[in-house]
Fold this protein.
Amino acid sequence: MDLIQLIFQLGVLFAIYSFIWFFIDLGLALLVAGRKRALPEIYLIKVVKYLFLVNVTFLFALEKNNTLSVIGVIPSATVLVVYFLGKFQQKQRQAQVLSQFGGKGFGLGLDFDRRYEIGVIALAVMLFILLLAFPEYAENNIATWFRQSIIDIEKTVIIGFIFKVIGFFFLLGMLLKMVNAFNYLISGRPLVDFQTYMGSNTTKNTKDDFDDYEEINE
């Protein structure tokens, strides 16, 4: 029950953090006056985003356990890593779909590099481990501001309720991933293979689009 509550609370935390970061990223985009960001610049911003999310999650883990121990923060660290890997897989699938359509032909940049993505996640995990060794560095002005802003938004009536709904669906998604992982250990395959389903569905849709195009030309 504690694990379910933890996943739900982290889902709310991640959702509100992404909401706040959306406006930060929007401000950064306005500063460059419409200039297209280079890939290294995109991932530099993503590094900052992920590192502060790790910092805020670490503060949350400390507050929840009231003590610093590896066992106490492992559940939070595990959920955080699964969250990062889920974002990585989502971005990878989007890049694959866009590449099938030429990506930039639709005015959409892929903005995806597998090495950069793995590097960003590795840095985030390293920071969490570093904070375990030096927890005093977790208490800094920026992370404290993020944490307090998240708490304030969560306490608002309407917006807070919306993010709690998002946290509920995050909980369902995490539980499904756990069931998939457990089933994979037992039977050697996941209970629900979303990647295969999405891949076959995308291939079918792509074929239909090309068929329609050819029919019009004829």
In short: DSSP finds seven helices and no strands in the chain. The first helix runs from residue 2 to 31. The radius of gyration is 20 Å. Helices lie at 2-31, 39-65, 70-100, 114-133, 141-155, 158-187, 194-217.
